[in-house]
Each structure stands twice: as structure tokens, then as C-alpha cells.
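Handover notes (outgoing to incoming on-call)

Open items:
1. DDE Tnp4 domain-containing protein: sequence verified, structure written out, both below. Nothing else pending on this one.
2. Nothing else urgent.
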Amino acid sequence: MEKAGQWIVFLTTERDLNEAKTSWMAKYRIPTVIGALDCTHIQIKKPEGQFGDEYTNRKNVASLNVQMTCDAMERIISIDVQWPGSVHDSRIWRQKTCKIPRECLLARGQRIWYISMAFNTIYTTTN
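DDE Tnp4 domain-containing protein C-alpha cells:
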């Protein structure tokens, strides 16, 4: 964990965002995309107590639902491990916990896209 900040670095400047868009366009011919995101379940020992069942996923296995984002070079640029296994991927996205500065981008009028690998869905920062 102590070195996570050296390896997992999200795009924070306008220059970073523009470079990400350029990379996705050059490699995959997809305009305005800055990342691909998906969730995966990491099996854990079921917590004891009144909230233990919240960690049981749809396959009846105790897990954490972990959301990750990668760039066009397949490097992880954000990770969120705070959700119990019973939480659906789309709820994690709606809760805006992914380390994505959406409000800042919207305030500057930027339109960016994220590709969801699980549902063949594209999420955008604008409505």
C-alpha cells in the first residue's frame, strides 16, 4: 500500500487528459476516451456481525467489489476497494467514488468517456 501512489496515478491535469485521449485515439481509434473501467470480485472471509451478509455476492461468495480504471497502455490509473460484494457495478459508478474528477471536468466543459468492459457500455461525464 505504501507504494500505491507511485504505481496508481490518476489523470489530474488538462495535459494528462489530452494525452490520454490522444493515446486511446492512436491505439484504438476511439475519440475522447480517457480510460476503461470494470469491476471484479475479490473473495474474502465473510465478516462476522450484522453486516456480514452485505459481502455475499450473487454467486453466494463473500467478496469485495473492486472497481479499477486503466489507460490505453493498460496501466491502472484508479482503484476503489470500498464496496461489499452485494453492490452492483453500476451503483459504484453512480456513487461517483471512482477517483475521477468528474465535477471539475464538467465545470470546464470537458466531455470525456469511460468504456465499461463488463457491459459493453460507455459512461460519460455529461448527461
